[in-house]
Amino acid sequence: MENTANMDALADVLKAIRLSADTYFCTDFSAPWGMEVEESQQGMFHIVVENSCWLKHLKAEGPPLHLATGDIVAFPTGGAHWISDTPQSPRQPGSDVVKNILNGSNPFQPESEENSTSEKSSATTLLCGSFSYDSSMDHPFVKDLPCFIHIKAAETPELAWLRSLVTVLANESRQPSPGSTVMVDRLTEVLFIQLMRTYMTSTSNNVGYIAALADLQIGAALNLIHSEAKAYLSVERLGAAVSLSRTAFTEKFSRMVGMPPKTYLINWRMQKAKTQLEHSDKAMIDIAESAGYSSEAAFSKAFKHYYNQPPGQARRRSNRT
């Protein structure tokens, strides 16, 4: 059974890694067409709005994948791949295609008006974009992001609402109206969250941070940690909250998350403290106490150990930007 409360922890992590999303375009590609997409530090996605195409993850074994209408594919870690109308079609650099489309020059549009109607009826409509986040953040969620996700429309009828979201996203991208930019960005972020939810519930991996989010006991513990307002929690209290002994809880948490619960708890408190220093006017002693330290001196020493700078410097640097 899925832990339905774990989405608070996921939302908290997404805020911390500063998730942002961008839809590049939604447009028609007439055959023959193809894009060779280089490896990137950003995540990428493609949605087949209409018709079909082929895709190959260059670091994955096996033949190319056939994508049908409604299929969604994503490369959360920016893996290199190609996508085209047929596996044999010539392919242009993906960055050039995006640049040309954004400049109003789709390289795969029909060349003549005479053929435009018939070719458009057989064209593939693609919605493409990217996900950005702070990949330098030392958090297990970032380290455990999957390299590839494929949501097949034919196998996920329960996600009909997601197809509706894609329809709105496609319409707003193709025919922008006042406020479309903000709407498209927010809907694309929702798309990323749903991709993570689907992966959490469908992955066969039973270890890793994303699997931990979906686990009834460890997911609930993560939710408690991320909803903590004051430094009240301990390993014993977390274990008791999810009906596990301290030893059993520590073993299971460490195996799934990749670090002991005490380490994760302290790390997250320090991350929250850093965010409060950078984005709030809270008094230093209040931030110190919420992180579990009874004095500014003890907090300052611990903060410097984590971030190689004293908390005062982090606050001053943030005020300058």
UniProtKB/TrEMBL annotation:
Q: Which GO terms describe its molecular function?
A: DNA-binding transcription factor activity; sequence-specific DNA binding
Is Transcription regulation there in the keyword field? yes
Record key words, sorted: DNA-binding, Transcription, Transcription regulation
The yes or no answer to whether the keyword Iron-sulfur is present is no
Protein species of origin = Neptunomonas qingdaonensis
Pfam families from the xrefs? Answer: Cupin_6, HTH_18
InterPro entries, per the entry = AraC_lig, AraC_XylS_family_regulators, Homeodomain-like_sf, HTH_AraC, HTH_AraC-typ_CS
| Domain HTH araC/xylS-type, first and last residues per copy | 219-317
Q: Where is this region: Disordered?
A: 83-121
State the protein's name.
AraC-type DNA-binding protein
